[in-house]
Design goal:
Number of helices: 17
CATH topology of the largest domain: Rossmann fold
CATH superfamily of the largest domain: ANL, N-terminal domain
Largest sheet: 8 strands, mixed
Number of strands: 27
CATH architecture of the largest domain: 3-Layer(aba) Sandwich
CATH class of the largest domain: Alpha Beta
Strand order of the largest sheet: 4-3-13-12-14-15-16-17
Helix content: 25-40%
Strand content: 25-35%
Radius of gyration: 23 Å
Length: 566
């Protein structure tokens, strides 16, 4: 059976669909895919191939590819002719996952504008920041968020609203913009592939969010990265059979998150696959399972937390989930135990589970681990895509040998040029053109990447580095543990000590957990502070644990801040 790195090399060889060539980006050499669209607007042509296939579904709303793109072109025509919007103009989209969100996104692409998805949980003050920072010219919003936009002082005449609730006075309904003549083909010249296509604000767990300025090439590269890993995964799976039908994905991640947008929304235009959205409200495994059963969903995942909660609820026992063919996750660390649990619950998916690694600044996918390689290396996030370069560097910036942890640096056509209007952040985030991820990890002799921690989350106890992910994986292997986060707390002698905040679902004591960890970890790695709780850990919209809150003792139970369906 060929291994993942070998298949990636074969699939990207000259003459293949995913062939790679040398090119220039931002004035420096880069490997890029030969057969790539040069602009997101080129994907509009695929609507003719997919036609009446459903593209987006939410409840009773079912829009085909033709309906979505016909409406998007009509909306684009209205904005161009009525407001003069065109290349480079920033258009905000803010709201719960919905077909209208998708229409606003593609309407902006048709205009050759810059899509600005704002975090749908933001307060009016935060929304005002995003509108001002991006220099927004127009806003698409659902009825709930439209009020925040207007409250932030934005001109209501330039706000198009969807939803059944009351819209703010002076705004217009998005549906009213779909009746006019569509934007004609060639009416607006297409911008260069290295021009900005979207501004995605980082999670902002500390300080003001930064706008990741992702170009057309960045986003299209992710489409092809997803394609080559998917193709390799099928070739590795001896039991895989093609049904001839595109995938149906249960999208539980907000579309303002890079994973959902770059990895599902955009590539599905290419593949003809369907996105199914959850109804508004907090994530409910039973509701998700009911939708999987009804819509015959073939793939789901997103962030590890969602998969874990589906397993915790044991929805696979009382719902027919036999349509599910693949489960994939990324965006946050996944413990090796999660793969075991997925395989136990879905034995038929043994080699169809994948985890990936990437950032908003890398337009999502940089590495993926899947198939037998994932089973053999469940603690690895896999090898990089053929167009991505990884460096592991020490504090002095020098490259480190295989097996030695250091900061992960990334370069490739998926990496942004920089942040929107933030040269200060660019200077800090880039080194010799490489993106400094702030993540700590190492690469083994076969090129597989392992994430050991976030640099800022690493605990330094008496000069010894404690990698939190390692400690979390050991604690999570205890049968009473459902979730765990490890952080550092101040200590007058050692500088920091290790603290574990543990979500348990059965009786267990800190001493028992410490003894369990001590059987695997060196004594300095075993937490000396324990907090046991029954409520889920607080997370941001991308599923990452808010460790700053845990360090400061603000460990309130999860609420609307982890509501995947909004």
């Amino acid at each position: 059976m060929p291994r993942l790195p070998d298949l990636l090399a074969q699939l990207s060889a000259p003459g293949q669909l995913f062939a790679v060539t040398e090119d220039t980006m931002y004035g420096r050499s880069v490997r890029t895919y030969v057969n790539r669209p040069r602009n997101l607007a080129e994907l509009f042509g695929f609507r003719f191939a997919h036609g009446d296939r459903p593209y987006v579904i939410r409840g009773e709303q079912r829009l085909t590819f033709s309906q979505v793109f016909d409406q998007a072109l009509a909306v684009a025509g209205h904005l161009h002719h009525r407001f003069g919007l065109g290349p480079g103009d920033r258009v905000v989209v803010v709201g719960a996952n919905a077909p209208e969100w998708v229409i606003g996104y593609w309407a902006t692409v048709a205009l050759q504008g810059i899509v600005v998805p704002l975090n749908a949980w933001w307060t009016p003050d935060e929304v005002a920041y995003g509108l001002e920072d991006s220099g927004a010219e127009f806003v698409f919003a659902d009825d709930r968020r439209a009020h925040r936009v207007v409250e932030a002082g934005f001109d209501p005449d330039r706000v198009a609203v969807w939803g059944s609730g009351e819209a703010p006075e002076g705004t217009r309904r998005l549906s009213d913009l779909t009746d006019g003549p569509p934007l004609a083909d060639g009416e607006i010249p297409r911008v260069h592939e290295d021009d900005v296509a979207a501004i995605f604000y980082t999670s902002g767990t500390t300080g003001r969010p930064k706008g990741s300025a992702n170009s057309h090439r960045n986003i299209i590269t992710n489409l092809l990265n997803a394609g080559i890993f998917t193709t390799a995964a099928k070739l590795m799976d001896e039991t895989w059979t093609e049904t001839g039908e595109p995938d149906v994905n249960l999208c539980v991640i907000p579309l303002f998150h890079a994973t959902a947008n770059f990895t599902y929304l955009v590539p599905y235009v290419f593949t003809g696959s369907t996105l199914v959205f959850l109804p508004p409200g907090r994530f409910d495994p039973e509701v998700a399972a009911t939708i999987i059963e009804r819509e015959r969903v073939t793939t789901f995942g997103g962030v590890p937390t969602v998969v874990a909660r589906m397993l915790d609820a044991e929805v696979y026992r009382n719902h027919d989930l036999s349509s599910v063919r693949t489960i994939s996750y990324g965006g946050a660390p996944a413990s090796p135990r999660l793969l075991e649990r997925v395989t136990e619950a879905f034995p038929g998916l043994r080699d169809r589970v994948a985890q990936g690694y990437g950032l908003t600044e890398t337009s999502a996918i940089t590495t993926v681990n899947v198939g037998p390689d994932y089973r053999e290396r469940p603690d690895s996030v896999g090898p990089p895509a053929p167009v991505c370069d990884l460096r592991i560097v020490g504090p002095d910036g020098d490259d480190l040998p295989p097996g030695t942890p250091g900061e992960i640096l990334i370069w490739g056509p998926n990496v942004i040029r920089g942040y929107w209007n933030r040269p200060d952040a660019d200077a800090e985030a880039f080194s010799d053109g490489y993106l400094r991820t702030g993540d700590i990890g190492y690469v083994d002799e076969d090129g597989f990447l392992y994430i050991t921690d976030r640099a800022k989350d690493m605990v330094i106890r008496g000069g010894e580095n404690v990698y939190c992910v390692e400690v979390e994986a050991v604690i999570e292997s205890h049968p009473a543990v459902r979730e765990v986060a490890v952080v550092g707390v101040p200590h007058p002698e050692w500088g920091e000590e290790v603290k574990a905040v543990v979500v348990v679902d059965s009786a267990v004591t800190p001493d028992e957990l410490a003894a369990h960890a001590g059987r695997v970890l060196a004594s300095f790695k075993v937490p000396t502070h324990w907090e046991l709780r029954s409520e889920p850990l607080p997370r941001n919209p991308s599923g990452k644990v808010l460790k700053t809150a845990l360090r400061q003792g603000r460990v309130s139970p999860v609420g609307d801040d982890y509501d995947s369906a909004l």
